[in-house]
Batch of 2 targets.
Target 1
Amino acid sequence: MGAIFDIEVAKSHAIHHLETHPDLNLTTKLKLCHRFRIITWLPPTFKALVSQPIEGLNPLGLGQIPTQILHALIQVKHRITTHRLTLAAVTPPAIAGFSCLTPATCTFEWESAWKEGPAEMLRHPDIFYSGRKILAELMSADLSPVCQDCGEMSVFNVQDSGCLLREDIFVEEMLGELRIWLMNQ
């Protein structure tokens, strides 16, 4: 009723009670978000769907998502997957520390450590490790036989480049586009 007669208090009351409703799933929430322009639901719902495997959603649930939002979801998930596979395949450069006596050895060991650690986490088929989680693991990992100076410089390089945090940027960019689209409906 609040949406039909544009009564803001009634709309706010309904939205507040729907947010805590136990039967309101993510796809229905996006459908209602689109239909009634509940912009505040878009970011958390979209992010929650991005974090789930698309194969895990049932066809009926996917059918409830408005086409524009579903297309955006598939597009951002594809972009994230491509980025993750690229990071897994291409080792970030090892940065030689100032006091390193064996830079070639450290470079070789850094590449091995990357392929056995972060690269495996990035392409793990069953467990999704976020870029933030991988970065946290990398920062606390024992990288020996890479010398401490090279290890610290190389990890700092990965952190400073933001390559493991690009997923969040992809989602935020898509949310910006969806907000504009939703407001112009």
Note: The mean pLDDT is 88.
Target 2
Amino acid sequence: MGKIPQYFRNIAAKSPVTALMKPETTVVQSNAEHKVPYLRLRKKDSVRKPITKTDMKPEVNALSVVFDSPSLADAKATFNSLVSSGRDIPSDPNFFNKILHSFSSVSCLQDSVLFLNHMIKKYPAFCPNHFTYHILLKQSCSLPDEQSLLPVTGILNLMKDSGFPPNVVSMDIAVRSLCECGGEERAVELVKELAARNVLPDTYTYNLLVKHLVKNRSISTADSFISEMKEFGIKPDIVTFTIMIDNVCNSKNLREATRLLSLLRVKEGLKPDCCVYNIIMKGYCNLNQGDEVLAVYKRMQDEEVEPDRITYNTLIYGLAICGRVKEAKKFLTVMRGKGYSPDAVTYTSLMNGLCRKGDALGAMALLEEMKKECDPNSCTYNTLLYGLCKARLLDEAVKLYKVMKNDTIKLETGTYGTFLRALCRKGRVADAYEVFDYAVETKSFPVVAAYSTLESTLKWLRNARERGVVV
């Protein structure tokens, strides 16, 4: 138990203390090693091209103009120096947009607007476009501690007065920027304001806002937004309901998922697709309700919704974790009949179910069957190793670990801790240290986490022995 892990011995061997005791040596290379080989120029290479006026005025690169200071005066001086330097200034508006973007990243919104006005006045050849004002729009939406839409509205009015009225892209940029900084309420308010100006969100912007509302606010807030947008002729689609159902299923609120499914059918006249049913099926899997998982599958059959590979994998997983492995295995045949070959996810789900029932050897037998159709992955091996340790089949677990080690398969946190405890339980502490070295070597997880697990396992073993507890 006092053995120093190999990982720390390697660090000690590389300690700079030994390097301090070695005298420094300076290697002097002869001039011969630095001789430049003689190159013979071809005749056409030896002809010097005449220097033109264009060659003497290199084009300016906008990426070289970077503002580190929020000072408007410094920004104006830099721009004045740039346009009066005699160098070629590109006519592309994107050149000036990059300069404005650089300054807006360090300045306040008001100074960014003033700097844009200065750029237009100082260099009349610069013609702003929608992207120019979108830089200011994004900045106005990203202001910290701003609770109103006044800055955003000000930029939208500036766009309109400058001949670039807000469009669908403007709305998308504003909504995304507001949602990124937690301003979902302001995003809803902005969408309604622009919709009143006949600027309606497209499907992507609409569903993006719904996604943020159900994730960061509440399902009722999303319902209110959907109802209000119907006044402008915008209705939810199947993607909208998929987003909402997925959110409530992740929070294990299957009653709300059922309500949304009914609303989708009856009120909106939409037909649930395979993706919607897969999400609901996954929700019941998380609740270990195998009967409900089967009920969803049967409903898909009744409504003639064709299952896909995800459907069968979810169904097999849901039945397996409930201990209904034999029933789950029957769907392997159904799956193949539909043209879907079982993959690593399918077999790993079955192995997980067998290990939960304590039949780790049955799971190992399934591994050989699996190799005939697909390759096991990291999750497969970790599931089996965990199951063998739980079943106290240490010799089989060690054999499997050697296979994993030979293929450099990383250990998962739960498997690693369970394996260490199984080894220490049998007094194989040296092997536990070796497993620690392997976990660090393969970067399965941070060194601190690996050592912390090893240390806690050794403390558990020592305390158990002191109390005379059989482990």
Note: DSSP finds 24 helices and no strands in the chain.
